[in-house]
């Protein structure tokens, strides 16, 4: 009886080996079958997943299509669709990489304007993320970078394709981004002011005026400069700044006792 167990071991090994071989052969058989699927069918499968909002599945199917059929109209459109699925599936960096590759590879493609627009949307979405909406002005470094990238993408779209159907929406988003970036700079300038860093506050206000000339935050920028000059005991510069403020914006009322909605959302220093 003691010899039965050793005798069964070679048999068990053979069974396991046979199982592994069957599995491998079945997988190879499936791959061969899948390889015979035409590009049109693979594209339709991916497109159905996209329409159903199954973003990860759509991405996987578009990747399969572009891997097996790297050339042709289906592969070209698949890259754009895949980038959109990545964007909707919160894979922003992957979407940007895909779109950059598309723009480099197909610079004259009929839908390359959409690629620029989608790049802007990805960066815009990153700038308008959860923390940005909840605590504006306190995730400045990351959000300012994303906002600038979005602004530049939309600007490039307008420059290259002024007749594109995406231009109108891009312009509206650029106005919002400009105003938001200017407002964030004011938040930083006020932070410096509260800590007595008046020169830094003036520099930040000047940055707003020079880079966002039509933003509503210019009023706050001029007021911040005037108050900073006053604290630095530079009454002439403070008076000149006040005159510029009044000349351009009339008798504005700036109630410093009432915190802005930006400050109310983030009451910490």
Can you give a write-up of this model?
This protein is mainly alpha-helical and 269 residues long. The chain has a domain of 70 residues: Alpha Horseshoe (Serine Threonine Protein Phosphatase 5, Tetratricopeptide repeat). The chain is built from 13 helices and no strands. Helix 4 packs parallel to helix 6 and helix 9 packs parallel to helix 11.
Provide a quick synopsis of the model:
This protein has a domain at 38-107: Serine Threonine Protein Phosphatase 5, Tetratricopeptide repeat (Alpha Horseshoe), CATH 1.25.40. It is built from 13 helices and no strands. The chain has helices at 4-35, 39-51, 55-68, 73-88, 92-105, 112-127, 130-134, 140-160, 167-194, 198-211, 218-231, 235-249, 261-265.
Oligomer: single chain
CATH topology of the domain at 38-107: Serine Threonine Protein Phosphatase 5, Tetratricopeptide repeat
Q: Main sheet, how many strands, which sense, barrel?
A: none
By CATH, the architecture of the domain at 38-107 is named Alpha Horseshoe
Element order, helices and strands?
HHHHHHHHHHHHH
Measured by DSSP, the beta-strand proportion falls in: under 5%
Going by CATH, what is the homologous superfamily of the domain at 38-107? Tetratricopeptide repeat domain
Query: What would CATH call the class of the domain at 38-107?
Result: Mainly Alpha
Number of beta strands: 0
Number of helices: 13
Overall body shape? elongated
End-to-end CA span: 81 Å
Mean pLDDT: 82
Proportion in helices: over 70%
Which structural category fits the helices and strands?
mainly alpha
Residue runs with pLDDT of under 50 for 5 or more positions: 24-33, 257-269
Whole-angstrom Rg: 29 Å
């Amino acid at each position: 009886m003691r010899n039965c167990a050793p005798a069964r071991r070679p048999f068990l090994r053979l069974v396991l080996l046979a199982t592994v071989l069957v599995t491998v052969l079945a997988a190879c058989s499936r791959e061969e079958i899948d390889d015979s699927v035409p590009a049109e069918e693979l594209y339709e499968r991916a497109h159905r997943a996209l329409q159903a909002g199954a973003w990860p599945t759509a991405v996987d199917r578009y990747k399969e299509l572009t891997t097996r059929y790297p050339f042709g109209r289906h592969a070209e459109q698949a890259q754009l669709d895949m980038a959109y699925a990545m964007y909707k599936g919160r894979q922003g960096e992957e979407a940007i990489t895909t779109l950059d590759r598309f723009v480099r590879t197909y610079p004259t493609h009929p839908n390359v304007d959409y690629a620029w627009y989608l790049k802007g949307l990805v960066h815009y979405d990153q700038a308008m993320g959860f923390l940005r909406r909840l605590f504006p002005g306190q995730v400045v470094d990351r959000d300012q970078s994303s906002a600038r990238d979005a602004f530049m993408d939309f600007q490039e779209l307008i420059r290259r394709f002024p007749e594109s159907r995406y231009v109108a929406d891009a312009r509206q988003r650029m106005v919002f981004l400009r105003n938001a970036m200017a407002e964030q700079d004011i938040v930083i300038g006020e932070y410096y002011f509260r800590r007595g860093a008046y020169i830094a506050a003036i520099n930040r206000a000047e940055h707003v005026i020079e880079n966002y000339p039509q933003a509503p935050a210019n009023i706050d920028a001029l007021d911040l400069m005037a108050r900073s000059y006053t604290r630095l005991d530079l009454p002439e510069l403070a008076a000149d700044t006040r005159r510029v403020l009044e000349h351009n914006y009339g008798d504005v009322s700036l109630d410093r006792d009432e915190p802005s909605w930006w400050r109310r959302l983030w009451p910490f220093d």
